Amino acid sequence: RIYPAMALLLSLTRGLNQTIPARGKWEPPENVAQLTELQGRTAVILGVGGVGTQIAVRAAAFGMTIIGVDPKDAAPGSLIKQMVKPNLMDTVLPLADVVFVTVPETPATKGMLANPQFQEMKRGAYFIAVSRGAVYSMDALVQALSSHRLAGAGVDVTDPEPLPKNHPLWKFKNVVITPHIAGASDRSLARVLDLLRENI
User: Fold this and answer.
1) H-state helical runs in the chain
2) Helix then strand then coil, % of the chain, to nearest 5
3) Any idea what the Cα angle at residue 137 is, between residues 132 and 143, rounded to 5°?
4) Are strands 65-69 and 175-177 parallel, antiparallel or unpaired?
5) What is the rounded CA–CA span in Å between residue 77 and residue 60?
6) Can you tell me the distance from the alpha carbon of 129 to that of 4, in angstroms, rounded to the nearest whole number?
7) What is the spatial distance between Cα 101 and Cα 35, in angstroms, rounded to a whole number?
8) Whose C-alpha in 1, 65, 67, 145 is 20 to 30 A from the C-alpha of 54?
9) Phi and psi, residue 113, nearest 5°
10) pTM passes above 0.85
11) How far is it, in rounded angstroms, from Cα 191 to Cα 87?
């Protein structure tokens, strides 16, 4: 989920979501002036477990400031500049140029991002979700995109899955949707087997 999260963000910030589909054409993005640098921007990562921590490493390598939202504290020497508990999430959402969602789906996290949270996000922020679709409100995401609060969204997870063909999220040019494949790779099965072996 680490690399797809960054790939979704880079696709949106560098206009690749527009230029790659124009195969066989020399076609720049609609607004080249809106291509976004990550250097000096702030990423808020919701869920700083294994995936969130590794996203923090990659985002920091792009020069981003990292804020984490997690029940636990940041590890000593971590790249995370600030860590807040989930009940204080709304205090850091307005700081985010990018919100990464990596929390697992639990009774505590289901629906944790609804309309009030999307309204707290900075105008022009990006939203990237790679954990579970039930963690955020699809309707609230559509509304945030329709009102131009968000600059774009990259989602590997939706609720429901697969996303129906008539869902309004498909209509946005500034949205990249992938079919829940962020966890797949040529090494993922080996990692699962290693974990299973260790647990046994």
Assistant:
1) 2-13, 16-19, 50-61, 89-92, 115-120, 138-146, 188-199
2) 40, 20, 45
3) 135
4) unpaired
5) 13
6) 10
7) 22
8) 145
9) -110, 100
10) yes
11) 33
Catalytic (active-site) positions: 132, 161, 180
**Do the strands 98-101 and 42-46 form a parallel or antiparallel pair, or are they unpaired?**
parallel
Q: What pLDDT is stored for residue 21 in this prediction?
A: 82
Q: pLDDT tens digit string along 35-55?
A: 899 999 999 999 999 999 999
**∠ CA(136), CA(142), CA(146), 5° rounding?**
145
**How much is the pLDDT for 179?**
93
User: What residue has token string 């808020």?
Assistant: 44
What residues have CB less than 8 Å from 39, skipping those under 6 apart?
Answer: 62, 63, 64
Q: What is the mean pLDDT of the chain?
A: 93
Of 170, 159, 168, which is closest to residue 135 (Cα–Cα)? 159
Instruction: Phi first, then psi: give them for residue 127, nearest 5 degrees.
Output: -120, 125
Predicted local distance difference test score (pLDDT) of residue 76: 65
Distance CA 90, CA 69 (A): 10
Token pair of 91 as six digits: 């205090």
pLDDT at 98 over 90: yes
Query: Both tokens of residue 136?
Result: 């955020």
175 vs 49: CA distance, rounded Å: 26
Chain segment 65-88, per-residue pLDDT in tens? 999 999 998 776 779 999 999 999
